[in-house]
Amino acid sequence: MLGFTALGLVIVYFYSMLRDPESSVRSLAIYAVWIVNAVVAIRCIVAGVNVTAREFSAGTWDSLVLTGVGARRIFFGYWRASLKVSAPWMFALGVLRLAMLPIAMIGIVNLFAVDMVYLYGAPSPYNPTPFPPDMIFFDFLGNYALLAVFSAVALTMLEVLTCTALGIAAAALLRSSTLSILLATAIRLIPVFGGGVIAWLDGTVDFRSPFALFRHPATAIADLGTAPISRLVAPYMTWSLYSHADAASTLSIVYILIVILLLCSALSAYATIYYNGAQPSPHQMIHGFRKRLDLGQL
């Protein structure tokens, strides 16, 4: 409860910062999502590891295997249990990502207005419209905004599913809580390190500029979608002529990457549990064969 209260206070603080057009609230909100995302990912990994490793630490794994329960039932049982533990954390990350969207939209408009005033001066009775007419236009792109809202929820769910499956796979392989958490965390950090290497090899990213950092595809790979989501909600204006199509294209790569990571994690967990001895007994195999025969599937 204390964590949700702190999260609510952070969100309220960010919205209060929107009163200052020169504040860097948009960048701060994205950094906050990154931090919470890292915490939630580790917590989900720990949940998957704890649910699985306790069978080995308590010495009940052999007894579970002797019951003849198959690897599929064991894996999905572990997965459901770890997801139940991780549900509040998934909710917190999803709420923060959704709250970030209006902040990102208003924040970019504020910074654009400040830049226009800096370049052309503020409106006055003698010059009510000092800005070039072709520079001042805004349009709300609803399709991209809906994609941002959907992705904020979908990527959060995929993140939690992937990290819990990673924890289960690592624990079933190593049978040690500490080593399993370290291994699963290292695997989850592969997109982060991969994005960093891409940015370093590219040589065009100015890490001192948040705008350059958030635009680069390497950042989208590293944070699995937070940066491109923040770009999708920006209104169509001078600063975002091509941002929406570029962000949507980058987001498709993120979806492919996290789905591959999820499938690899889930299949690895299933295979590890299976080869640890969780194979169906001959009685279950014969019963399943007869049931399929009765249903006309054979």
Summarize the structure.
The protein is mainly α and 298 residues long. It is 77% helix and 0% strand.
Walk me through this protein's architecture:
This protein has 298 residues and is mostly helical. The chain has one domain. The protein has twelve helices and no strands. It has helices at 2-17, 25-57, 61-66, 71-120, 142-174, 177-188, 190-202, 210-215, 217-223, 226-232, 243-275, 282-294.
Radius of gyration: 24 Å
Helix content: over 70%
The biggest beta sheet reads: none
Order of helices and strands: HHHHHHHHHHHH
**Structural class of the secondary structure composition?**
mainly alpha
Total number of beta strands: 0
Determine the mean pLDDT.
81
Core attributes:
298 residues, elongated, mainly alpha
List the helices and strands and how they pair.
Elements: H1 2-17, H2 25-57, H3 61-66, H4 71-120, H5 142-174, H6 177-188, H7 190-202, H8 210-215, H9 217-223, H10 226-232, H11 243-275, H12 282-294
Helix pairs in contact: 1-4, 2-4, 2-5, 2-6, 4-5, 4-10, 4-11, 5-6, 5-10, 5-11, 7-9, 10-11
